[in-house]
Hints:
The protein has 215 residues and is α/β, with parallel strands linked by helices. The chain is built from five helices and eleven strands, in the order βαββαβαββαβββββα. The strands form two sheets. The protein has a nine-stranded mixed sheet, with helices on both faces. The chain has a two-stranded antiparallel sheet with strand order 5-8.
Amino acid sequence: MKKIFVCGDREIYRNYAEALSFCGAAGIFSENLQHAEDCGALLLPGGADVDPALYGAENLGSRGIDRERDQKELQLVRDFRKTERPILGICKGLQILNVAFGGSLIQDIPTADAHKWEEATGDKVHPVTASPGGFLFPLYGERFSVNSAHHQAAAEPAAGFAVAARADDGVIEAMELPSKKIYAVQWHPERMAFRNARKDTVDGRVLFEFFLSQC
Length: 215
């Protein structure tokens, strides 16, 4: 069984654990980075905002910062990159990857109301357009709907990365570095799959299965 490392508590990230399990993989959830050593791939989950100091910026709207977690995830990216094991970034995970490879973030996108989670309504839903030749195009086609729960985004893709999808307002919604088997999406496929499947979005299961096929 393929072992996928996630930095954090299984109960907190139970949607990710369930998605991996339903796809036939074992999620290894721990904050001890030594537990990642024998895992075949890394999943960077969603969370609060990345510490702006880690990409050389002052705080202009970042919230809920957990610098210790950020530093652990950046170290994991370095470790998995060095050994060329696949990485999937989800929501904050995309942002961590962009920072890890030298990119920066928009701390509060101008169109945040169309993207951010709200207590009254939960996830937003909006369409994205996939780039021809990118990893998402054969999975979902050129245009499809996803959920959304973020107010930050990659400013520009870090060196080596290609944009794999954008929202209609230009926000980067997916990136990839396929030569290193590194992929990232700004939405939450774990909340679009299996028991959390939605009728107003595509099936997140397809993305998890693609990622596991790279392991």
